[in-house]
Amino acid sequence: MQHLSPATRHIKKMDLTILGAGTAIPTPQRSPAGVLVRIGTTPLLFDIGPGTMARLGLAGVSCRDLEYVFLTHLHSDHTLDLATFLQINDSTPGWTRTRPIHLMGCRGTQRFYDQLMQVYPEISPQSYTIDICEVATERIAFDGWAIETAKTQHTGSSIAYRIEAEGHVIVYTGDATENLELVRIAQDADVFVCECAFPSGYPTDDHMTADAVGRVAQMAQVKQVVLNHLYPPALEVDIVAQVRAIFDREIVVAIDGMRIIV
Q: Do 101 and 128 form a contact (C-beta atoms < 8 A)?
């Protein structure tokens, strides 16, 4: 795998950019959730936390070209910029969207969208359609790529995504807990973008700790782990060493703008 700066434009196979490596709590270099995967010239956006639209532009992708948005769950740090994205599509001078938007998410996404339209009725699509698909544990094939989902147990409906294209695999957990479904969906992934919210042993029942990440990654035999969605306590320790105590392959700590070619 080749690591490139955010400014690099060459796209080969699958291209991963971390748009937001943090949480709702502000920390340097780590914004709320957003992950961009490019398959050829097709951009796929996973989670759309506050500020994602600006960081998408910094990654070299215009929101005009964005047609696929995938939500892991419906918490605000993963969804707030959906309102911004929809507003952009009908309020950009000299341009109006006509291509549809495909919004895939966990159970409850349609209700969330309907409530968002009640709060901000002026951002409802006027010149284009939005196709909403709710999923739990499913596999869906697209043109040259496929998406598979699994429950993460962060919430009652939260899901992780496995993206497959050209024989390569990227898995993005969103917020998660240690469970066998996560092991299954991460199996043999080239890149495992995994929440690592807290240090090993930290008391939590709805997030991943470093030791939990290590166990899932080791059981799934992934090639590389990208530690993502880090809360401040995870940044106060040698989080890589804590994961490496269990997982014996490549580990990197995500920051905004990190780019990996698979």
A: yes
Q: Among positive and negative, which fits the CA dihedral 106, 110, 113, 115?
A: negative
Interatomic CA distance for residues 45 and 182, integer angstroms: 20
Domain that holds residue 140: 2-261
**Digit-coded pLDDT (tens) for 105-162:** 999 999 999 999 999 999 999 999 999 999 999 999 999 999 999 999 999 999 999 9
Decide the pairing of beta strands 259-261 and 159-165: unpaired
C-beta atoms surrounding 137 within 10 Å: 12
- Residue 235 phi/psi, 5-degree rounding, is -90, -5
Domain count of the fold of the chain: 1
- Give dist(CA 257, CA 262) in Å, integer: 16
Q: Which residues contact 58 (CB under 8 A, 6 or more apart)?
A: 6, 257
